[in-house]
Write a structure and sequence with these properties.
The chain has 14 helices and ten strands. It is of the alpha/beta class. Strands 2-1-3-5-4-9-10-8-6-7 form a ten-stranded mixed β-sheet, with helices on both faces. α7 runs antiparallel to α14, α9 packs across α11 and α12 crosses α13. The protein is globular. The relative contact order is 0.15.
């Protein structure tokens, strides 16, 4: 079924360019705030990326004024001076309620501000507001629409964060990934999405879905902007490790994993590989994930059991307020045998070791694969299938998606890149050269 034509509501707001302009004073902070708020006023009723907040513009103007008073000298300004930040509504942020896209009483979820939010604020960012999430970061969608075409999903569960960045409401946003909720929506909305190694970003102040799988993610419009933001939230960042002296060797995980993608996505992916090889990148095909069905089953077991665990204090008293998909996964999780859960948890460490051993034997620096099965599905009833992200999430490996062309219906596609565990710096260090090779004209723009 072809999409009905609908005007795109995207707007350019690349983080690196915005941050440099604000820090230097070439871009005036009040003007940046007013432009963003005007975009929100004009387009948010149709996109619905943000949790409603009365008085948002006045609050931001006041915070911007106080920030400017603290840092009058451009040379003394922090790296994200005045940059607007979207915060997925499962992170605690001072001055905002956490609702998690749910109908349960909000007072159940409150707590101290997430340290990743605090770190970005200390770097100068101003919180634009909370962004819409699927219920408890699972499958039940919110109202958010894809700014590239309002008839399509932006993806989930970080739907509001990606839509807000794509629409130019903010230049940076926080999300999470338990299955595919950073990489998938970033690809659907034409963004750079980055999910660091498991545990690389602190999860305090985050409403947990799965303690074994939840990972914090970031969204920007530009690869250079991601390189600016990631070191602020990732623990023990070593800048020197992110200066590779050669092009990466890319591995393609042939077999059942890659076969999941649509014919259109695979054709685009092969074209991306051809382009990279023509630009001098080495690409090697490697058979991988023969046990994919077991990997998927194991992920389901962990998600169900740990969601039930995370909601043990609330579920019985508020069962009727949960939407069907979330309620059913919790009920499924309550039936998981402890021994089965223990085996599933051991499995994700084994998967990481298996993937990294494959990389070592084949001499690979990064895996390359489609970020999604295809473009964003039409309608808002589903947030899309995270099948292309699940294995990398389970292994806890750092993953990033770059905008990589468009599907026949005009919607964005993404190229997913995955590095060994804790090689986040090297992954980010190669990102700009890969983005440039894929699309020289849009490597640093939406």
């Amino acid at each position: 079924m072809e999409s009905t034509e609908h005007p795109a509501l995207v707007a350019g707001s690349p983080l690196a360019e915005i941050a440099l302009g604000l820090k230097s004073g070439r871009l005036e902070l009040p003007a940046y705030i007013d432009q963003a708020c005007e975009r929100i006023r004009a387009n948010e009723p149709r996109i619905q990326a943000l949790v409603p907040e009365p008085g948002r513009t006045a609050r931001l103007r006041g915070q911007a004024e106080r920030l400017a008073e603290r840092f009058p000298d451009p040379d003394g300004r922090p790296p994200l001076f005045g940059v607007l930040l979207g915060v997925k509504d499962i992170f605690h942020a001072e001055g905002f309620l956490t609702r998690a896209g749910a109908r349960l009483p909000a007072e159940l979820f409150q707590g101290p501000e997430a340290s990743c939010v605090t770190a970005l604020k200390k770097a100068g960012a101003l919180v634009l507001g909370k962004t819409v999430t699927t219920e408890f970061a699972y499958l039940e969608p919110g109202p958010t629409r894809n700014p590239h075409n309002l008839n399509h999903t932006p993806g989930g569960s970080s739907s509001g964060s990606v839509a807000a960045v794509a629409a130019g409401f903010c230049s940076l946003a926080l999300g999470t990934q338990t299955i595919g909720s950073t990489i998938r929506p970033a690809a659907f909305c034409g963004l750079v999405g980055f999910k660091p190694s498991f545990g690389r970003v602190a999860r305090d102040g985050l409403l947990i879905f799965s303690r074994s799988l939840d990972q914090v993610g970031l969204f920007t419009q530009d690869a250079a902007g991601m390189g600016l933001a990631a070191p602020i939230v990732c623990r023990d960042w070593r800048e020197e490790n992110g200066r590779p002296d050669r092009r990466p060797v890319l591995g393609v995980p042939e077999g059942p994993y890659l076969d999941q993608a649509s014919l259109e996505a695979l054709a685009a992916f092969r074209a991306h590989l051809d382009r990279l090889e023509a630009r001098g990148f080495t690409v090697r095909r490697v058979q991988a994930f023969a046990g994919l069905a077991d990997i998927i089953r194991r992920h389901r077991v962990i998600c169900a059991a740990e969601l039930a665990e995370a909601h043990s204090a609330w579920f019985e008293a508020h069962r009727d307020l949960y939407r069907p998909a979330t309620r059913n996964l919790i009920l499924e999780g309550l039936q998981v045998d402890p021994g089965e859960l223990a085996r599933a948890r051991r499995g994700y460490q084994e998967l990481r070791e298996e993937v990294e051993a494959l990389m070592a034997r084949a001499g690979l620096d990064l895996w390359a694969c489609p970020a999604t099965l295809g473009p964003a599905p039409e309608g808002l009833g589903s947030t899309g299938d995270p099948a292309m992200n699940l294995v990398w999430t389970q292994a806890g490996l750092p993953a990033l998606t770059l905008p990589a062309g468009r599907a026949a219906n005009g919607l964005p596609l993404g190229l997913q890149l995955v590095a060994p565990f804790m090689a986040d710096e090297r992954l980010l260090g190669w990102t700009e050269s890969l983005a440039e090779a894929l699309d020289p004209e849009s490597a640093s723009r939406l």
